[in-house]
Write a structure and sequence with these properties.
This protein is α/β, with parallel strands linked by helices and 346 residues long. 46% of the residues lie in helices and 14% in strands. The strands form two sheets. It has a seven-stranded parallel β-sheet with strand order 3-2-1-7-8-9-10, sandwiched between helices. The chain has a three-stranded antiparallel β-sheet with strand order 5-4-6, covered by helices on one side. It is globular and about 55 Å long.
C-alpha cells in the first residue's frame, strides 16, 4: 500500500479492475496491480480437483480452495509470520502436502456454511487489497474433449491424458453445464473499468470461468476495455504447438463475441538457460502471429513483461502491472477524445 498522501489518494481512486482466471499467473499479476489500485477484484475458477485442494474437496464436499488461496496470498497485507503460515505445507502424516492456508479456508467454510462467505471472512482476516470471489458456488468438474473425440473428466487428469492421446484439445465443458455465477462476481464485472483475462493456463484456469452461466455474457455487455494477457510460454500437456492466435481463438470459441478488445503479448526474450529447461517439457516461448490476431479482431499490444530473474519463465509483476495500466490509460484517452470530438461536432 502506498504510504505518501498523493500516492495513497491515487491508489484509493484507482481504476476498478476485474481479473478473471486462476493459478500462478493470476496471483503473480495481482501482486503487481495491488500497488497501483485499491479497487481490485479477482474472479477465480473452482474447477481444480488435484493436490491438497482435491483432497479437501473430496473429504469435505467443499469447492477447491487452492487458486482462491493463492490470490489471497498475493493481495494480503499481513505480517511475515502469517505469510509463512499461509504457504506452509505439512511434510508428513495425514496432512502431508496440505497447505495451512487451505485448512483455514476449510475451517471457515465449516463455520460460515458458505464457501463465498468463508472467502470473504478470510479476506478480512488477511486485510487483503480488493476482493477475491469464487466464480461459482456450484460443485463443478472440468471435462476436456479432444480432436479425436476422446474425453476426460477432471482438471488434474487433463495434461497426462492429452499426452496419451497425442492430439489437441478441441474444447472443454463444465459439469454440470448450468452452473450459475456468484452474484458478487457478476456485479464486479458489471462495474469494472477494466476487465483482464489471464495470464494462466488456457483450458484449466481461464476458460472454465467463461463456461459458468452469466460470466461471458456479463463481459460482453461491459463497456470496459477487455484485455487478454498472453502467457510467456506454451504449456506442457495443454497448449503445445499453440501460438498467441491459437490461444485467442480458443478463448473466443468458448466465450463468444465481444469478449476481448485487446491482446497483450510479451516482447522480451526468455533467457537461454530457461529455454533449455522448458524444452525438456516440450514448451517454447509463445509465438505472436500478428496478422492472425488482427484477423480475429482484438488490437495487439506487445511489451517486455517477462521476468528477468527466477527459475521459471513468468511475468514480472511490476512490469505487467505497468503495461496493463498503460494500455488502460491509452484506451481511456482515446475514448475521451472520441467522445469530445462527438460533442464538438454536435
Amino acid at each position: 500500500m502506498p504510504d505518501t498522501y498523493p500516492a495513497l489518494h491515487q491508489w484509493e481512486r484507482g481504476p476498478k479492475i476485474v481479473a478473471i482466471g486462476g493459478g500462478t499467473g493470476l496471483s503473480t499479476m495481482l501482486r503487481g496491480l495491488k500497488k497501483y489500485t485499491k479497487n481490485l477484484t479477482a474472479v477465480v475458477t473452482v474447477a481444480d480437483n488435484g493436490g491438497g485442494s482435491g483432497v479437501l474437496r473430496n473429504d469435505l464436499g467443499m469447492p477447491p480452495p487452492g487458486d482462491i488461496r493463492h490470490c489471497m496470498e498475493a493481495l494480503a497485507n499481513t505480517e511475515p509470520v502469517m505469510e509463512k503460515l499461509l504457504t506452509y505445507r505439512f511434510p508428513e502424516g495425514v496432512l502431508r502436502g496440505q497447505s495451512f492456508g487451505n485448512l483455514i479456508l476449510a475451517a471457515l467454510n465449516g463455520i460460515t456454511g458458505s464457501f463465498e462467505e468463508a472467502v470473504a471472512e478470510m479476506s478480512h482476516v488477511l486485510a487483503i487489497t480488493g476482493q477475491v470471489i469464487p466464480v461459482t458456488s456450484a460443485d463443478v468438474q472440468l471435462e476436456a474433449v479432444f480432436e479425436n473425440d476422446a474425453r476426460i473428466v477432471g482438471e488434474s487428469q487433463i495434461a497426462a491424458f492429452k499426452k496419451e492421446q497425442d492430439c489437441r484439445i478441441h474444447h472443454v465443458n463444465l459439469i454440470p453445464r448450468n452452473a450459475k455465477a456468484t452474484p458478487t462476481a457478476l456485479k464486479a464485472i458489471g462495474e469494472a473499468d477494466l476487465i483482464l483475462l489471464g495470464p494462466g493456463s488456457l483450458y484449466t484456469s481461464i476458460i472454465p470461468n467463461l463456461l459458468v452461466e452469466g460470466v461471458a455474457q456479463a463481459i460482453a455487455r461491459s463497456d470496459a476495455p477487455k484485455l487478454y494477457i498472453c502467457n510467456i510460454m506454451t504449456q506442457d500437456g495443454e497448449t503445445e504447438g499453440y501460438t498467441a492466435g491459437d490461444h485467442l481463438e480458443a478463448l473466443l470459441a468458448h466465450g463468444g463475441p465481444g469478449l476481448v478488445d485487446l491482446c497483450l503479448a510479451n516482447s522480451a526474450p526468455v533467457r537461454p538457460g530457461l529455454l533449455e529447461k522448458y524444452r525438456v517439457e516440450d514448451a517454447v516461448p509463445l509465438a505472436v502471429d500478428r496478422e492472425r490476431i488482427a484477423s480475429l479482431g482484438p488490437e495487439l499490444v506487445e511489451r517486455p513483461v517477462a521476468s528477468e530473474n527466477g527459475n521459471y519463465a513468468r511475468h514480472d509483476p511490476d512490469r505487467l502491472a505497468q503495461a496493463v495500466l498503460e494500455v488502460y490509460r491509452g484506451r481511456a484517452v482515446r475514448i475521451f477524445r472520441g467522445a469530445r470530438r462527438y460533442i464538438l461536432e454536435e
